[in-house]
């Protein structure tokens, strides 16, 4: 892990170049310090050039079952999948409109569908926006279309 910064890129004697390089050096040191505080591993590629390994978001790479959401721990170090316990009322918002699930049931909103989906083994996908039965599905035989 990097614990100090070295300003070895100061080869030009021009004052404006020195000031510009000094400002860049300070920004680099600040960024490296932030990465160290957040416990992100850095790999040094060359002087002043580092690559961060890993992500700040512990939810990255975590795959939750259908309907579940990633929840980060209070210390920000760990994450777990949780099913929605309750659904907020968004008022007149697209997320608060009724939806039809592929199971043929009406759900008050997407959150309610996710809550039900999380409680099942295979999950429930949305069939379409709006209550079930609002749309009629017609199956048309290929014999009606000339080749």
Write a brief caption for the model.
This protein has helices at 15-37, 110-118; strands spanning 41-46, 49-53, 69-72, 79-82, 99-101, 106-107, 126-129. The protein has 147 residues and is of the alpha+beta class.
Keywords:
disordered N terminus; 2 helices; 3-stranded antiparallel sheet; two-stranded antiparallel ribbon; 7 strands; single chain; 147 residues; alpha+beta; elongated
Summarize the topology:
Layout: H1 15-37, E1 41-46, E2 49-53, E3 69-72, E4 79-82, E5 99-101, E6 106-107, H2 110-118, E7 126-129
Antiparallel strand pairs: 1-2, 3-4, 5-6, 5-7
Q: How would you describe what is shown here?
A:
- This protein is α+β, with helices and mostly antiparallel strands and 147 residues long.
- The chain has two helices and seven strands, in the order αββββββαβ.
- It has helices spanning 15-37, 110-118, and strands spanning 41-46, 49-53, 69-72, 79-82, 99-101, 106-107, 126-129.
- The chain is elongated.
- Residues 1-13 and 18-25 have low confidence and may be disordered.
Give a quick account of the main beta sheet: strands, pairing sense, barrel closure. 3 strands, antiparallel
Global structural class = alpha+beta
Gyration radius from CA atoms, angstroms? 27 Å
Strand content: 15-25%
Give helix % range.
Answer: 10-25%
Query: What is the spatial order of strands in the main beta sheet?
Result: 6-5-7
How many DSSP H or I helices?
2
Domain Kazal-like: 75-134
Organism: Rhynocoris fuscipes
Transmembrane segments: 25-43
GO cellular component, one term: extracellular region
